[in-house]
Structure formats: C-alpha cells, structure tokens
Amino acid sequence: MPAFLDIILNAKANNVVYDNINLKEVKGTVTLKDETVNLKNLQTNVFGGNIGFDGTVSTKGKKATFSMDLNLNELNITESFSSLEMLKAIAPIAKTIEGQLNSTITISGDLKNDMTPDLNTLTGKLFGQLLNTKLKASNSKTLSLLNNKVSFLDTDKLNLDKLTGYFSFKDGEVTVKPIPLKYKDIAIEIGGKHGFDKSMNYEVNFDVPVKYLGSSVTEAIQKLTPKDASDIKTIPVTANIDGSFSSPNISTNIKSATANLMNTIIEKQKQNLKNQGKDKLKDLLGLTKKKDSAKTDSVKKTKDLVKDKAKDVLKNLFGRKKDTSKKN
C-alpha cells in the first residue's frame, strides 16, 4: 500500500466479493493512511446473518498484518464454516452442527500474499453461542467413535441449543474452556486442546447415574441400607480423546469406575453385616442380663419367703411355750 495515501471513505455497496465470498449491503468507514487501512463500524449481510467488525490492516512491515474485532449474528453454521478457513480451523467440530451462530471474535495475525490470514500466526479468542442447532454425529469420526465407546450416550441426541463456548488460540493451537452439556439426566463437561494441524487432546467428564451401569450394580445397591443407597447416586466417568480428527483414539475408565463402585458397595455391605452382628451380640447379652436378673430376683424372693416362714414358725413356737407356762 503506497505510503502517500491519506483517504477517508464512507463506504456503501450492495455487493462486494472477497475471497469468493459474496458480501451484501456493505457499509462503514474506511481510512487509508500511513500504509494502514482502518475499518470502523463495517457491517455486511452474509451467510444468512450479519457481521459487524472494526480493525486494521497494515502493510508497513515485511509481512502484512491485521487485527480485528468481529460480531457474528445468526450466521448459518454450515455456510460460514465451510467458506471461512479461519473458523474451520478454530472449531472443526462445527461441520457436524446445523443451525445458527452468534459470536464475538478478537483476532490478529499475519496476512499471506493473497491477503488472507496465515492460520499459524493467529492469536485471539472466540466466544460463541449456538442457536436452533441439530447435531449430526455421523459427520464426525470422533463423535461416532465416542458413541461406540460409551454405551449410555447417543451423541445424535445431544441438545446443543443455546450452548455457549469459549475458545482461545495462539501459535496454531486452540484451547477450549470446559463446556457443560446435558444428556438426559447425565451431566457432561468437555474441554481440551486441538491444533490447526488437526491434532487433538480432549477430556470428556460424565456424571453418570448408577442406573446406566447395569442390573448387577443396581441390584447390589438395593441390598444396602436406605442411607447407604442414597449416598450412591452417580459415579464420575472420563473419556480421553487424542490422535487427530481424521484418526481419533478414545479410551474410557468405565470398567475401572464400575469396579471401584462395586468394591465400595461390597465394603458397605461388609460393614452393615458387622454392625448387624454387633447388634445381635448386644441383644444376646441384653437377654442374658435379664435372665440373670430374673434369677437373682427369684432367689432373693425365695430367701425372703424362707425368712418370713421361719419367723412365723418361731413366733408360733414361742407363743405356744408361753401359753403352756400360764396353764401350769
């Protein structure tokens, strides 16, 4: 860009084509000065929604650079993510989602010779909300594999409507802050990282009600005391996802988590049996004391009765002697 340019444009255009994308109803202020383009209050209709942005593009250095703040309103997810490599790199999972997107994006980086972003230089953050969404797990090898690995989950039935997510990215790597989900009565949280090179490392945490773990578990819990049973409502289960989006690996701790739960149940059952044994012993000792007490009372009563009888006998005996002496 020539350094001598010093121009202010209040732009308005019905159609603008940029990188094979048709922008409609474009308007805003464009300032060209000191080898830098400043964009202010730019608005355009695209991908079934609206994008507003402010930013700068500079050609001062050896490489052209840019910095943007974007507001995306009700964009069609399928159209926007299939057309914009930048969005596709930040959130590749979007190819499995149908619906709309609201988002704010702060981003900066280098531009290539064709003035498109160099993905490996991008730095920024994205906050997004999904609207009127439908998930097509069959479009993702990762979600399809997760379905196979986790028996209590059907990813096609996950409700993503109004779901929000926070992404930050730097040096070709995207960090996803843990996102809470809900499937039936199962609480889910997913977070982790992936690279623009399609590598990934994610963790999915499930809080699973015990009823999903099979009849052997539920039957064992039913044998516990009501108090102990009420303490065991859910167990934590973790799925670790790594590899790449094209060749994912998933491991879970479902077996070990279930085994640990069964061990806990067995220990509680053992403790209950010990407590029952102690109660039985106490009852038995209590009965023995009562019997001993009754026996003692009986002996005491017998002794008292003997004493009374003896007194009567002595009285009668001495009484008769007194009567005999009087007569004599």
UniProtKB/TrEMBL annotation:
PANTHER family: DUF748 DOMAIN-CONTAINING PROTEIN. GO terms for cellular component: plasma membrane. GO terms for biological process: regulation of protein targeting to membrane. The lineage of its organism: Bacteria, Pseudomonadati, Bacteroidota, Flavobacteriia, Flavobacteriales. This is Uncharacterized protein.
